[in-house]
Specification:
Strand content: over 45%
Structural class: alpha+beta
Number of domains: 1
Number of strands: 5
Radius of gyration: 15 Å
Order of helices and strands: HHHEEHEEE
Oligomer: single chain
Helix content: 25-40%
Length: 180
């Protein structure tokens, strides 16, 4: 439980400390995030051949290489990602999460969102895209994806990195986009 408490505190600190800045502040940090996103997609492709081709075949995609979330009853999470349009890096995005319900623990995970067409990517860029109503169980580091969602022109993949969390919550994810 002590490790879980640290993950929860870390997620909450990240939520408040860096939740205001969609893109990393320095060019070095931006370059590192792009490298992390590229490495995450390559790693996914090693474990599930074809996922990289699927992302590249879409009109665009966003890769969040690390999202942390946690809580007890009330949860919060935060992560940054890289946005691609027709495989060309066009900007950065962040994800802020909030949840309420049965929730205990903390976890880190990756999220890949693939846009079928320009309209879907534009909805994302304009902040007209969100995900809500979650039910998840993740224990330690295992598996490829906990769930895949298909949402009007969008496919969303989730991949656990680690942690221990159980939730049955009403939640929401807010995305913010900025040009590179």
């Amino acid at each position: 439980m002590m490790g879980e408490a640290r993950i929860v505190r870390l997620a909450l600190v990240l939520w408040f400390a860096i939740g205001c800045s969609t893109a990393p502040r320095t060019q070095e940090a931006r370059d590192e995030l792009v490298r992390d996103a590229t490495a995450a997609l390559s790693d996914w492709n090693r474990q599930a051949p074809g996922i990289q081709s699927f992302a590249w075949a879409g009109y665009g995609y966003v890769m969040f290489p690390g999202i942390g979330k946690g809580g007890v009853g009330i949860g919060a999470g935060y992560g940054r990602g890289v946005v691609y349009e027709q495989t060309r890096h066009v900007g950065f995005a962040d994800i802020s999460q909030g949840s309420l319900g049965f929730l205990i623990g903390g976890q880190s995970y990756q999220e890949l969102i693939v846009f079928d067409d320009r309209a879907a990517l534009e909805r994302f860029k304009q902040g007209q895209f969100d995900l809500s109503a979650d039910s998840t169980g993740v224990m330690i580091k295992w598996g490829y994806t906990t769930r895949v969602r298909l949402i009007e022109g969008v496919t969303v993949f989730f991949r656990p990195i680690g942690g221990a969390m159980t939730e049955a919550t009403v939640s929401g994810q807010r995305f913010t986009f900025v040009d590179k």
